[in-house]
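Model it.
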Amino acid sequence: MPVIIEFLRYYASLLFGTAVAVSFAGMKPTRKNCLVVGFFTIAFFMVQVLCLRTWGMDVTLKLYPLLSHIPVVFFIVLYLKRSWLIALTSMFISFLCCQPARWLGSVAGFVFKSATMDHLGTILISLLTFSLLQNYALESVRHLMDRSVKSCLHFGVMPAFYYLFDQITTVYTNFLYSGSRAAIQFMPFATSAFYFVFALLYYNETQKQSDIQRERDLLDTQFKQAQTELAALLQLQQTSEAYRHDMRHHLAHLQRLAANDQIEGIKEYLQAAQSDMDAITPTRICENETVNLILSAFATKAKQAQVLLTMDAKLPPNLPISDTELCSLLSNALENAIHATEKIPEHNDRQIKLRLYSKNDKLCIDIRNRYLTDPIMYEGMPVSHEQGHGYGTKSMAHIVEKHGGVFQFTVKDGWFIFQATA
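Modeled.
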């Protein structure tokens, strides 16, 4: 009976390590996969038993990586079609996860002074550990390994080091059991050093991901703002059309005033009507309705900021870029240009020049503006240290690159220039 329990413990350990490794590597728990893993572990367990009976425990322990660990790696690569890096990392982590059951089983055997309790404790702790890993660690481990090669290396280096240290110092040599000072102090030092390096690398990676997420959120906000602005411009256009449609009512009122010889009343009414029409009627700049609405709105903003905005826009009605993206692109560019130009004290120097045209079904943009202080450039992009600024240019670059276009920001002869083809 004790022999059966001992062999059951060894098979449970093999099954546990294999199941953890393939789970971390991404194997789905289907009936087919579970049967394949079961037959795989039984086959290699029989090979281990044969090796034990033929050469004994000492040789079997030295051959154990070839009899268990390497086959698991090949199984993950060949059957699950995963990379060698993920296969090796999964195997190293599963070896690490086997240790709690091993040590707690030894504690149970020591307390009860029974080898059988050692084996039974190992089996029970293995089952409990597997359940905890499946419920609380599986998704996180998969995410870390699949995230990137760099992330997988960061995550797997410590388990790999532990695996190699354990095999070299306890299986192939007795260095750890020699009692030397170096053997006793090396592992705690190495573990602490690895943890320190990992903590720094993980912090840097977290900060990068946090910055990326923050920029993505701001870009999404700007995109939604562009959608809102475009909807407001379209509403303005509809209001203008409705006002023109109601012109007959205005004419009828003017006829009544004229019939009563109320010349002053006619003048006042015409002046008020003209002001209302000017306020809601977009300036006709080009044939493209979206561009016409955007440029008309920014022409008003530039006038209010006392900035001279000259525009030359020759665009077809349809462009290979969505209205919301076009609104975001032009709005960010003109908003930045007005923001930089209105800081110039001399009103005569406040100038913005815009040129839009279509070539080979591509939108070509050239927007240049005067500025007060020299722009700060980094890797071809303008850098702003003002709160809430600097994301507009990133949004512009993202839209252009999304459509396979090219862009550049340059400074020349006192002009800040944005040029793009999308």
